[in-house]
Amino acid sequence: MIEYPNFNFEIEHKAPDSRARVGTLTTPHGVIETPNYIFCGTKAAIKALSPAQMIEAQTDIILANTYHLMLQPGADLIEKMGGLHKFMNWNGPMLTDSGGFQVFSLGEGTMANEIKGKSKGHDNKSLMEITEEGCVFRSYIDNSKIKLTPEGAMEIQRKLGADLLMQFDECTPYHVDKDYTARSMEMSMRWGDRCLAEFERHHNGAQGVYGIVQGGVHEDLRQISAAYTADRDFFGTAIGGCLGGSDEEMEAVVASSVPHIHAHRPVHFLGIGRIKDIFRFVRLGIDTFDCVIPTRLARHGAAFIKGHPGETINITNAKYREDHSPLDARVDVPASRDFSKAYIYHLIKAGEILGMQILAQHNVATINMLMREVRQAIRDDRLDDLEKEWRG
What we know:
Blueprint: E1 8-14, E2 21-27, E3 30-34, E4 36-40, H1 51-56, E5 62-64, H2 66-71, H3 75-80, H4 84-88, E6 94-96, H5 100-108, H6 113-116, E7 127-130, E8 135-138, E9 145-148, H7 150-160, E10 164-166, H8 178-202, E11 208-213, H9 219-231, E12 236-239, H10 247-257, E13 267-269, H11 275-282, E14 288-291, H12 293-299, E15 302-304, E16 312-314, H13 334-337, H14 341-349, H15 353-380, H16 383-391
Parallel strand pairs: 4-5, 4-14, 5-6, 10-11, 11-12, 12-13, 13-14
Antiparallel strand pairs: 1-2, 2-3, 7-8, 8-9, 15-16
């Protein structure tokens, strides 16, 4: 049995009418409260923001991406530099994914250009082969052939040095049939066992590994995969893979998975993080979320605003050209309170990096405020009222 001596997850309060819960997640680099939001530092950097600015925005935890970092600058160099925490100068908890999502979504040619870091029109069908051993793909940097296995994914994440790791899994696209999805899920389960075996070989208490629930949109497959993760010595559980083509399908995927996962482990939802998603899925028992949305929206001129219909405003709208008001004085960071909308409008129209930086910190701080208020609302059993405050 794998034990995690420097990790812990305690549930402090459960909602009476849903699976929503408040907990504390302990890692070697600190303790965070849940539910919480893990911000994406894909290439060992939060886009447009420094670690100091993330701390100023009251950020608790961030993530980095195995796929991108294995290609540039490489896991060996990051290990030589003391691991991601020292490399980035981030002293708080950190998560890395396994690289599987990027490998397989790139292979389908559907990966978001923003995550891949390439412009539109580039041929991104880089996946060459999937076998029981692992996968072979071509690097988008130099077109070299690279093999990634469950053991390799764990070795890379060990060298990167994050607190929380993910097992290697295949992410099936939406269009494949149930038979393929079932075979893929079963292979991901075997890969999960190989990940655990490799993890245990080097385990020294510095890291904890999550199992990932797969199975596409098929509820019976999700139940099988969820039960598998509960039966193995993972520290936590992640819900990933294809989540359907609508909010309703996504909710059904999670609702069919959660009753079968380990009830006392932290639960992470991979790649999801709109405001409406937070309220929907904390009710289903999700403890942590991650998504590129807060900083991506900032780069397109959008700002999260509590209580605004549609969640965001577009600062490039002409009505903000002469608007003296700040983005949101309720959010206690300089980006939200100290600059007029007119100034930010000017910065974005002029192509000034500062505009994106202001919007990025505002969005991060707003999401952090949301998560603090969600935790308190769960404690006070008033989550429905809080959702009305945020979503109008």
